[in-house]
């Protein structure tokens, strides 16, 4: 019967969720080369399971370094394959879990491609944001005899430690406050909250959000790589038998580019932006490291980004840090620095798991 099917599905999901519970997972994806030039030399020497080996060609002093994560996706992996690995995590939102997925990496490494997709969007190359919501709708429909789900989204941008609503229709640019409230589950209560029930609703809102992001970009070119953007999915599920209400929340975050800006080369606005980005990305790293070490004090309040994600980092929440790297030789220094940042998170977690044995 439908009821047993749902129970069985819940049990399966529960087992998958148990595997993920309380853990911080780290994935890595390598962007393909952007043109067919055969002269390109990749700094990625080898990928196997969760291992990636980065090499430097001999004329730069040959050497290599390996890193281990939960998963490494090579250049030929499709959007569908990437999504299918994240599916159990995303689906757990319907069972009332809080989830946070964030894309980290230097500008041009493929963060937006993974989360949103390329400019010429097709069904095949849609990123995680579209697929996640589409999948939640499918699963909610399958459970409709036993649960009633309401799904709503918010989309905001953090730029220079200021929070902006990306789902406004009138182009207003009001500064928003972050006020963590576990009661409503809304951390930014003044940001537009839009109910969605179909993939076409999602496409409309994503388009609105991208347009509003671009408006902000006129003053300074390509501001989008210097701001964090976050799609938040709020789910409320009512168990039709018991009347119990479940709430889950998922943040899908496309972070600002992590590249180190040479402080001697920039001044004014660019320097200020760079300082804000460095501050918030290191605050994120500190929060995650402190969670992984199971510290009692977690420094959420050090940046707007970590305040925003507070409910979805730590505790019972499930976090996926998705790092991106560019394969080109001229990106080598940033690639190593990205992988070291990720490794700091991954190894600490591994260490904690060993202590528990
Ligand atoms: P970021 O968000 O990190 O700045 P983008 O997602 O904008 O980087 O990616 C830079 C360019 O590379 C874009 O033109 C994007 O479409 C392309 N790209 C990134 N990842 C892939 C991929 N896996 N497959 C094909 N093209 C990609």
TrEMBL record:
Domain Kinesin motor: residue ranges: 23-348
Binding site for ATP: 105-112
Entry superkingdom: Eukaryota
Family: Belongs to the TRAFAC class myosin-kinesin ATPase superfamily. Kinesin family. KIN-14 subfamily.
Protein name (record): Kinesin motor domain-containing protein
Organism expressing this protein natively: Gossypium tomentosum
Lineage, highest ranks first: Eukaryota, Viridiplantae, Streptophyta, Embryophyta, Tracheophyta
Range within the parent protein: 378 to 734 of 1018
